[in-house]
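User: As part of a screening pipeline, I want to sanity-check one entry by hand. Below is the sequence and the SMILES for S-adenosylmethionine. Please return the complex as structure tokens so I can compare it with the automated output.
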Amino acid sequence: MPIEEKQAQSLLPAELQAILRCLNCGSKLDSDGGGGYVCSACKRAYPFVNGIARFVDAQHYAASFGFQWHRYQKTQLDHDDVREADLNFRMKTALRPEDLKGKLVLDVGCGMGRFAEVATAWGARVVGIDLSAAAEVAAKNLADREFVAFQADVFALPFAPDSFDLIYSMGVLHHTPDCEAAVKTLGKYLKPGGILAVWLYSGYNKWYRFSDFWRRYTHKMKPETLHSVLKVAVPVLYNTQEVLRKVPLVGRPAAGLLHHVFPVNRQSTPEARMLDTFDWYSPKYQSKHTYEQVFRWYEAMGMEDMRIGEFSIAVRGRKPLR
Ligand SMILES: C[S@@+](CC[C@H](N)C(=O)[O-])C[C@H]1O[C@@H](n2cnc3c(N)ncnc32)[C@H](O)[C@@H]1O
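Assistant: Here is the complex for your manual check:
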């Protein structure tokens, strides 16, 4: 079906009209006729720039992610032959296609849109928000889907309470200055009976200590500079580990020590290793969490029917119907 025809049939524009709210005064927003919005009461404008409506004035601390997702636009995006994000989404949310089919879903920190690709393939209508310019990439990657991307901050979302059937946030909230506050802010945007699923970095395994140490310095580098450094460092460190592993007796412990002190991602392709290693060393904020913590946050929100996914820390819960 041509894209224009699909968009004409989409429920999303009318649904957005009903749930979008002004960040200034909380009133309803009207379309400005060019992809942006304007407040019906205070007239604050939310302009449409580079393919998306903007609810923030800048990328703030998330600029490295804007760089990352523009540089690696499709590396992690599923296509007909590869359904890795699909598998990942199942393990990190414990959700299945029937949980999303026909639902209005919010993807918090959508990045370049890999999980929104899965959610729309499962039949959901998805609103993706991201603080960084990654939202532009998501809008382009998923232009033929029931999907809309906004540049917006999880701490100031332009939606009415009780708007979404399901909200998920994969690998995002630990990159904010206050993960607990970020998780807790999401409950109010769920309809009663709606599901909140988050996946956060695990605090149980301490392998990341050295990347945390190096990141104190690397996050201050310009993303372009850090990327150039890693373009040399990642292949050198990875290949050195591979050579060391072949040395009898001392080789494996030496490779392990090198990996411990200078961690680099060990996926099978050079591009995937670069992307994920950049993703470790570039963010300003990167907290780690336990199930005990996250369950307490969900309980404080009054969530019920708590479940965990296969890949920690994956927690999901339901907003009570009453
Ligand atoms: C590691 S990426 C994950 C992207 C996507 N969920 C995925 O798994 O492919 C983290 C994303 O969180 C976004 N982010 C960080 N702080 C945010 C905030 N306060 N509000 C919205 N998005 C935020 C970043 O811009 C970045 O795209």
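Points to compare against the pipeline: The chain has 13 helices and twelve strands. Residues 62, 65, 69, 109-111, 114-115, 129-132, 134, 153-155, 170-172, 175-176, 279 surround S-adenosylmethionine (CB under 6 Å).
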